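pls design
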């Protein structure tokens, strides 16, 4: 196994006024530089006309979100007014793939396997590319290329300019998660129970490491480790220099899969479980720091800002927890089940629900 280039503990926070992709940043840590008010109130909401499984992105004063009815929607961040609607040419719609924004383009995948690049200014198509399977992975834009996984078992690098294939990396099963990026390498763990590290420049493997678990979540990268939950009811920390599992975490009494993607902040890994709980785990040792019980499964991936954790639950609520202790600070009734992950930018929290309501809190 080759050694992976690994960055140190460099900051992985978003810009204050942006959350341009799934998990906010390319290392997928879910950490925002923005600090929403301690007491949230609804600033606006919008009925999108379909289920929201996709997580919002925020850039340039606009919110972008995919809708199961088959639309990519852009709203004004300040008022919630519609800027434009882009309709995908499939009845299958948009699932969990979340938009990524860079400059004049916003990119998203749909359940028919098509990647869409759309002009941020007016919602017109720039290009599309058809993969060989449905897309639930969220795109990540790195320089001149778009990285995205497909259920055809491949990770694609497409040209941001025209959608042409720059390279294609094949695995043994579905690529569900979103690739995390660090120091020129894309890291993802797929349904083939393997951690893959792939060079962004040419699509060549840096290393592969067996994890022994089916994984639907995306990896978070921090201080030389990858953190990810599994369908074998564990959260894993993987050392990126050796490819070895540094620790395994599981609840001693409640054995349920982890589908939520982890956040990492202040030495704590925060992840939701289908056991209805949000878990705070010590990043170095894998020991439990705290656990918070909701009323239903937690598939929403947590976001962290200002020492607070923001996470949705299938019980229809957005919870705000203290990062250090897991103590509930507040909760907000979003009405429908929340599996979409919150976006945090410009002092606002934007989250969607499965009843089709997009809510902006601040």
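designed seq:
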């Amino acid at each position: 196994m080759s050694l992976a280039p690994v960055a140190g503990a460099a900051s992985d926070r978003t810009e204050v006024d942006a959350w341009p992709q799934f998990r906010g940043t390319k290392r997928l840590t879910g950490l925002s530089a923005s600090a929403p008010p301690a007491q949230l109130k609804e600033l606006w909401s919008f009925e999108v006309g379909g289920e929201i499984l996709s997580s919002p992105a925020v850039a340039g004063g606009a919110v972008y979100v995919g809708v199961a009815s088959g639309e990519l929607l852009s709203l004004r961040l300040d008022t919630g007014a519609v800027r434009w609607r882009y309709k995908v040419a499939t009845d299958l719609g948009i699932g969990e793939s979340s938009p990524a924004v860079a400059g004049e383009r916003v990119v998203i995948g749909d359940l028919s396997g098509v990647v869409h690049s759309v002009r941020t200014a007016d919602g017109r198509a720039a290009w599309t590319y058809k993969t060989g399977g449905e897309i639930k992975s969220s795109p990540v834009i790195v320089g001149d290329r778009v990285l995205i996984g497909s259920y055809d078992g491949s990770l694609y690098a497409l040209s941001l300019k025209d959608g042409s294939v720059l390279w294609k990396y094949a695995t043994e099963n579905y690529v569900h998660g979103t690739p995390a990026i660090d120091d020129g390498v894309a890291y993802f763990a797929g349904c083939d129970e393997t951690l893959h590290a792939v060079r962004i420049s040419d699509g060549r493997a840096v290393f592969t490491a067996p994890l022994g678990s089916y994984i639907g979540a995306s990896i978070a990268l921090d201080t030389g480790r990858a953190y990810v939950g599994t369908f074998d009811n564990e959260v894993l920390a993987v050392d990126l220099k050796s490819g070895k599992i540094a620790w395994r975490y599981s609840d001693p009494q409640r054995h349920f899969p982890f589908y939520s993607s982890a956040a990492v902040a202040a030495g704590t890994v925060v992840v939701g479980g289908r056991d209805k709980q949000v878990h705070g785990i010590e990043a170095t040792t894998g020991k439990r720091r705290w656990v918070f019980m909701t009323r239903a499964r937690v598939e929403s991936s947590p976001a962290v800002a200002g020492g607070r954790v923001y996470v949705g639950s299938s019980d229809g609520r957005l919870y705000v927890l203290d990062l250090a202790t897991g103590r509930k600070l507040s909760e907000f009734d979003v009405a429908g089940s929340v599996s979409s992950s919150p976006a945090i930018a410009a002092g606002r929290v934007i989250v969607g629900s499965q009843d089709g309501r997009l809510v902006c809190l601040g």
